[in-house]
Each structure stands twice: as C-alpha cells, then as structure tokens.
Sequence to fold (123 residues):
Amino acid sequence: MTFDRLAAWCALWSVMGGMLGYAIGALFWDTAGLWLIHLLHVPLAEVNNLRLKYSAHAYLIVAQGLTPIPYKLVTISSGLAGVYFPAFMLYSAITRSLRFIVVEGLLIHWFGAQARRLLDEYL
Fold:
C-alpha cells in the first residue's frame, strides 16, 4: 500500500473512531454526567454555559486535532458538549486528513527516503 493510501485510510478510520468517542461523550452526559455534576455540587447553569461555549466554537476542533491533545479527548468532549454532529464530522475529517495526509506528506517531502522508511516501519 502506498503512503498516500495508508494516510487516507488512517484518516478515515480515525474519523470513524471519533464517531465512537463522540457517542461515548454524549451517552456519558445523558447518564453519568448529570449525576456527577450534582454529586460535585457544580451549578448546572455553569456547566451548560461551558457546553454552549464549546459548541459555539466547534470549529476549534480542527486546531485541537493537530495539537498534542489526544484526539479521543476532543471527540469525547464534543459529545459531552453536544456539538452539532455533522459539524463535528466535517471538522474531524479536516483535522484528521491534515494530520495524516499533510503532516506525514511534508515529513517525506522534507526528509525524503529516511522519513518514508521510518513511517513505513512504525505506522
């Protein structure tokens, strides 16, 4: 399999895994999340305000997906915040494609055969 195909395949499955993370976050909020908020005596209005802020700035998923922050935290947080699912999918597809296709492609461009060998060996 060529590197381009492998990178696209990784991006696709990363987004698919992101769907699972989103579902975990959404289900956690509906089940244990509310219970935990009440247990910790955190005002629900404050939590809802934070959820709305995260949802309103969901486009930041693109930036978050390129940082060292684990993508699974981004996906679970998106589900917890109730980010509009089609927007979540769009931003996830963008960030994971950038991550796997562009970043690794640039590594090969800049470092040539040595980078290709390392990526083939460790991916």
Residues 26 and 79 are 4 Å apart (CA to CA). The chain is about 85% helix and 0% strand. The mean pLDDT is 86. The first helix runs from residue 3 to 39.
